[in-house]
Prior knowledge:
The chain is an all-alpha fold.
Amino acid sequence: MNSTLSAAPAMPAAIVRRKRPSAVKVIVVIFLSILVVTQVYPLLWLFIYSFKTNEEILSGRFFALPAVLQWKNFSDAIKAGHYFQYLKNSLFVTSVSMASVLLLSSMASFAISRFRWKYGQIVMVLFLIGMMIPLQATLLPLMIIFKNMHILNTHLSLILPYVAFQTPIAVFILSGFMKSIPSEIEESAVMDGASVQRIFRSIILPISIPPMMTVSILTFISIWNEYILAATFISSERLKTLPFGVNSFVSQYSVNYGAIGAFLVLGALPVILIYFLLADKITKGMVAGAVKG
């Protein structure tokens, strides 16, 4: 019995000894931890801020928890801030703009990346130049144009510039991905008698869903939080978008800081929910065109 036990093979030393993490891994973990804290903390701070009274907010104790949760801040944000009215306007403007950007950018990217024509690179450069134009430089010209077109103070005056400013970056992302699609797929479809429209609709678009999801979320965030164009072109109370709700709590002699925090939390919820629902597709879309296959 003793000889049997002594003959049992010893555990390998590599298994017994626990492998120590390398210095590189430790540095990476520390860096990612700092990154998470810096990104998550503002949201957590805003959430705590929304439950405080004005006295607690103005006391300067940023890390202190509220003595009593002020749920009234959220009711004030919804009622006094016209939350649902502004939310409806924001959803309408954002959804129409997103659909237009996806349609136009996908067709333009298909023409630039898959067609063999001598002006393809020139058109691409024009889209890239469009990414460099600052939004503020277009306010006065657009104001004059929209006034002459009689569309000032309408949602159309927001949708048109939103589509114009978001399409270049969308074309940049989608064209980069479409260039990586093997040409043999189209050649097989052409041999089977498929038209250009059928190839675009039935082959290119389904393959391009991941980068289109990336374009969707980038467009959504940019339009959802936009304030300058909306403040310039919209004056009617019933047409204003969600960022205007913050102004509802600022008067000549007082500011309801708690309600502002609650309104900001409510305004950020749709963006956070959409991002978490589409996080996997967004990540795939960002690296979709990195490797040609």
